[in-house]
Design the sequence.
């Protein structure tokens, strides 16, 4: 395997990059035919070569003797090993980011901050799994001075595996919450799974940034000789939250105020994460803060959309009990008429019914003018908050959507990605 891997690495070095999609392959790419749950990339070997790939790596034996094809038993494992080999030859620092909520936003903010001083690579979109992380590492080249790699997981062992590939020098866990319970099985397993990043850093003399606002993560600080605490009297950074009305404002250093385009007080932690890592790498803090103030959330993540008659907060890229409660709490502080649309939270396994029922209980703590619950699981929230209007799916909601009055109000949309709440937003005039 080593001889084959070295040969593939040589071809990778002479290529224009790596591709796993024959439709978007670029001239000179090294193509990998990945066998997925719903597709087999090996079926597109000929197409990838016709579209300009220099070589194709395949696990289909019929291509063993085909020109410009390299046969391996497992193309995904080969891709991962290639990324690990490439990372071992790079001298740049890698910042590893994981957590239950806020990973992508934090990664984006860290990237903006570090770009004020360095040539930065950061994970594109949410390429944060066993395929996305290797592809991200293989995007790195000699021009990059630092990389931020986002790592996601839905079961034990995944973060540890991604760390072996990305080999982070510095790590941050944004928070730990009961998410992906279907895969992890329990909250205790979630804690163990996320902390695999810290395990790697301890074994490899890495630097840990500790969100000591999170009680679970705070306990991990004892495992490090010199952890960087991000909040409280011993915090690495002098940064203070001012308000979120609805956008976050904060003090930095000598009471200089910065006003962002980011909503939700829960996002203040993500801002502190980015500024702290920027400070560690010697970034000018004023430039860092200005970079954060230029950031406008998109892709359904705390995205503010102004319609003719109302302001919409689309926070429906992901949802779990913790993020829903934070979103509702923050939304309750907004002035004026407030309308809430809540959709199902996915991947909660056997705890799904109870967790949705808890959301119904929590809704009683607020005084929202209108609440709409959508999805098969949200009926359990309705049991504890019967004043809400319930719809089994978006199709049912669409039948009455035009009758709703959104004039002079703020509307929150919160649900898991699979609910596709952005389709509801598009129908609001």
Sequence:
């Amino acid at each position: 395997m080593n001889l084959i891997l070295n040969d593939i690495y040589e071809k990778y070095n002479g290529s224009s990059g790596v591709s796993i999609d024959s439709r978007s392959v670029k001239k000179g790419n090294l193509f990998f035919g990945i066998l997925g749950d719903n597709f087999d990339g090996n079926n597109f070997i000929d197409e990838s070569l016709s579209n300009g790939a220099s070589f194709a790596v395949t696990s289909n034996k019929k291509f063993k003797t085909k020109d410009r094809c390299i046969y391996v038993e497992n193309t995904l494992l080969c891709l991962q090993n290639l990324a690990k080999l490439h990372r071992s030859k790079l001298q740049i620092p890698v910042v590893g980011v994981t957590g239950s909520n806020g990973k992508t936003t934090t990664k984006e903010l860290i990237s903006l901050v570090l770009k004020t001083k360095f040539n930065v690579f950061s994970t594109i979109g949410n390429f944060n799994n066993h395929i996305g992380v290797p592809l991200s590492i293989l995007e790195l080249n000699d021009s990059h001075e630092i990389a931020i790699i986002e790592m996601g997981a839905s079961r034990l062992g995944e973060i540890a595996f991604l760390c072996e590939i990305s080999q982070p020098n510095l790590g941050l866990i944004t928070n730990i919450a009961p998410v992906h319970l279907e895969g992890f099985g329990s909250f205790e397993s979630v804690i163990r799974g996320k902390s695999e990043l810290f395990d790697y850093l301890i074994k490899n003399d890495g630097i840990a940034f500790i969100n000591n606002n999170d009680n679970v993560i705070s306990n991990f600080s004892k495992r490090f000789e010199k952890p960087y605490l991000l909040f409280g009297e011993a915090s690495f950074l002098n940064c203070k939250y001012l308000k979120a009305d609805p956008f976050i404002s904060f003090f930095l250093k000598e009471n200089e105020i910065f006003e962002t385009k980011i909503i939700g007080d829960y996002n203040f932690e993500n801002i502190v994460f980015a500024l702290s890592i920027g400070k560690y790498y010697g970034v000018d803090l004023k430039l860092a803060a200005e970079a954060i103030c230029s950031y406008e959330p998109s892709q359904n993540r705390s995205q503010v959309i102004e319609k003719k008659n109302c302001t919409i907060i689309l926070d429906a890229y992901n949802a779990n009990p913790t993020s829903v409660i934070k979103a509702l709490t923050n939304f309750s502080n907004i002035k004026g008429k407030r309308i809430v649309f809540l959709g199902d939270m996915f991947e909660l396994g056997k705890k799904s019914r109870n967790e949705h029922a808890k959301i119904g209980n929590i809704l009683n703590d607020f005084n929202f003018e209108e609440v709409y619950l959508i999805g098969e699981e949200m009926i359990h929230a309705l049991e504890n908050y019967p004043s809400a209007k319930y719809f089994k799916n978006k199709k049912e909601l669409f039948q009455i959507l035009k009758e709703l009055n959104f004039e002079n109000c703020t509307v929150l949309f919160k649900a898991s990605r699979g609910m596709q709440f952005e389709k509801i937003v598009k129908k609001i005039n």
Q: What stands out?
A: Residues 75-88 form the longest helix (14 residues). The chain has a mean pLDDT of 94.
